[in-house]
Each structure stands twice: as structure tokens, then as C-alpha cells.
Amino acid sequence: MKNTIIAIALIVLAPVTAADWFDDIRDDGSKEDLYRVLYYMPKGGDLHDHLSGAVFPEWWYELALAEKARGYDYYTKVRINNCRDYGENEFGGAPYYLMFRNITAREFGQLDDCEKAEYKRLEDLDEREKAAWLDSIRLDKAFEGRDEFFQTHWQRLNALLFNPWLQAETMVRNMQAFAEEGLSYVEFQVAVRGSRRADGTLIPAAETIDIMRQRLTQKDALDTGVTVRLQIALLRFLPDAEQQLRQIYQIVYENRDLFVAVNMVGREDNDKGYPARFLSTLRELGTAIAVSSCPYTPAKSTSRTFTSGTPCCLVPIASATALT
């Protein structure tokens, strides 16, 4: 703790010091000292926060159970009884053989008896099952990497992602954690289409946005002192991604008091989402863009229009506002 106080004092009081204090702490201090310095160091903003990928498993569990008050009851797969025939699509959004995939009580009620026996309610998990559920949505094993992340994370969360009240609570929980680390501004990437009530009925995008907006005005959110703006995520390699871009951009434009951008997301090694594909759509929308650099270069990403670094993450910006 003493080293932490000294380090912070050096940051605030001595912009230039004889010794490179950060290198000293990094190279010679303990991991605990380095973590504390980074934790308490004043920070500006986070402009690229994938909200559904930025929630601790413990938060997901706690907040999902709290949604019972709104009628949401969640089940998760804890065993596989081979209830289905061979040939299922294990690479889509609903892989049968994926453990700890979460569904609503309504979805559970639609299963046959064989598949119902594969699931348990979240609150009924024993200690071993709960620990495995928590570990299933974090990369905690040496063999887990990008494939585990891209092919199982959101597929497991599943029903939890379509509850707008739950999404709003994860926003506030992040704001509280960020405030403790000195962050002052964040742009969360959120989903506003496809939300559903506990009975399965669709919630219009406008109502989902109102739920988020109202949650951000509550005292515990305001007390964090963190300014929040939102982006809408678009999976850029979908067959109809251009049309979805038009629809999402319109939503952002109509709610530009809170929303600032459309962010095109997806695996960098899927070349169906290359930036030049959207050139005509972006020109039609008359929008400015920012392109971030990523380590993978798709073969089709060679248009001179999008060559700021490796053009794999394209962000059209609402109201022609540049985002860097």
C-alpha cells in the first residue's frame, strides 16, 4: 500500500521524475502494487465497451435471479441426455450440445420431457453446478481462447441478453465499478431490438431505449458521476447487414441525446463483413466513419476507402461525429 501511495503522489506531483516510476513498479514491484496503481490511476473514458461481454459472471447470476420480481425465471442446461437426433446445427445460435445455455421458463415449458430433464432453474443449482455455470462465461482455462469466446459466450447467455431491464442493471453495475477506478465517461454497446417480456412477447425498440434511459436517471446511476452514451451493435457479416445498418442508424439518429454510434461487431476472421461491402450504404447515409485496427486482415479489406490500420472493425458514426 505504501508503494501505491508513493506512485500516485509521483503521478500527481511530478510529471517528470529522475526515475521512470512506472517501469520501476512494473519491473520491480509486486503484482499487487501494480494492480493498485492501475486501479486508482485517474482515467478518461472507455469508448468501446461491449456491455454483454463486460459483465462478471457473479453479476449475471445475481441480477438474473433478481429479475424474478419482473416475472423472469431462468433455466440452464446442466446435462445432455442425447434427446435429439444427429445432424443438429452446432454452429448457430442454439447449439444443442452446449452446456449451461440459459433459457426462460416459457422456453423451458415448450421442451419435451427428455430435454426438460437436462435443465435446472438457476436458483436450484448445487454448489458444483453453480461454480461451473459461473466459469462457463469466463475464459478461465488454458485451452480457451477466441473460439470459446466467439462461439459459446453469447450463445450461453442467450435468454439473459433479451431482457432489457437486466441489460440496464448490468450498465449500472459497470458504472459503479468504473467510478471506483476513476473513469468519467463510457460508451456501452447495447442491443435495443429483439427484447422480450417474461411471457415471450416482443418489446419494441423504443420501449427498450426508454427502459435504459430511465434507469440511467436513477440516483444510484447518477451518484457514480460516470457519463454514459450508447452505441448499437450490428453483426457485420449477416446476409442483410446493409439493411440492418439503415434501420439501426435511424434508431441512433432519432435518439441522439443518448446514442452516438453504430458499431459493427463480429469475428475479424470472417471476411463476409469486410468494410468495403458497406461503402454504398454509408454514402447513402452520408455518415462519417472511424476504422479501428485489429490483428487480422481479411483478403477483401483492401479498399483505399478503409485503410486506417487493419480495417476489420468499422464504426459508422451518427450525426457525422468522428470517433477515435
Provide a short characterization of the protein structure.
The protein folds into 3 domains: 2-41, no CATH class; 73-159, no CATH class; 163-320, no CATH class. It is 39% helix and 16% strand. It contains 13 helices and 9 strands.
Written description of the protein model:
With 324 residues, the protein is α/β, with parallel strands linked by helices. It has 3 domains: 2-41, no CATH class; 73-159, no CATH class; 163-320, no CATH class. 39% of the residues lie in helices and 16% in strands. The chain is built from 13 helices and 9 strands. It has a 4-stranded parallel β-sheet with strand order 1-5-6-7, covered by helices on one side. Helix 12 (241-254) links the parallel strand 6 and strand 7 (259-265). Helix 1 (2-13) crosses helix 3 (31-40) and helix 4 packs across helix 9. The longest helix is centred in the middle third of the chain and has 17 residues, at 164-180. The chain is globular. It starts with a helix and ends in a 7-residue tail after the last strand. The model is unreliable at 293-324 (pLDDT under 50).
